[in-house]
């Protein structure tokens, strides 16, 4: 069975590292991949999450190609997309983007799609997209202004982080919580163990 020392996480997201650690998995290498995340015209959020997670994993594969140090490595990547209907919300880097996203999310349901892609040592490509339905309470002006000043929206799909203050906005969640944070743990571990990775290797007392 493969061990943790063969896992490359093609991500710079601290949340994804934390989520894997939560499941006792510590990647041997972090390889953030900078790819163009612009959605195609009228691209469905599910297809965008699939395409970007696969793109990140393939970019990491290209980066290690031919390097004997990485022979036998597994590459894991993910991409999280938030949508209201067919409308894809941006990963917010500017406060006005976050403000528009929060106004749009207020008092309604939205969906969070996370694509997960695993490339195995024999270069098999496995991918899944998991979606979670989330309903926010109606956000007051004070809620939104206070959230914006918290800065927790920075670098987050849809302008919020459910694992922080925005957890208090959620009136209903149907599906995987970890999927919203950025990596659906149940499905990711199933993918890894299904491809021969020993997901229990790190389940020792901390
Ligand atoms: C919706 C939501 C997103 N997020 C984060 C997860 C991701 O880090 C980010 C979505 O952007 P992504 O492009 O999926 O990931 P990233 O750019 O942060 O990292 P990388 O591409 O290197 O893997 O939003 C939360 O932390 N909490 C949430 O509730």
TrEMBL record:
GO terms for molecular function: dTTP diphosphatase activity; UTP diphosphatase activity. It comes from Shinella granuli. Belongs to the Maf family. YhdE subfamily. Its EC number is 3.6.1.9. The active site is at residue 79. It is found in: Cytoplasm. It catalyses: UTP + H2O = UMP + diphosphate + H(+); dTTP + H2O = dTMP + diphosphate + H(+). GO terms for cellular component: cytoplasm. It comes from the Bacteria. Nucleoside triphosphate pyrophosphatase that hydrolyzes dTTP and UTP. May have a dual role in cell division arrest and in preventing the incorporation of modified nucleotides into cellular nucleic acids. This is dTTP/UTP pyrophosphatase.
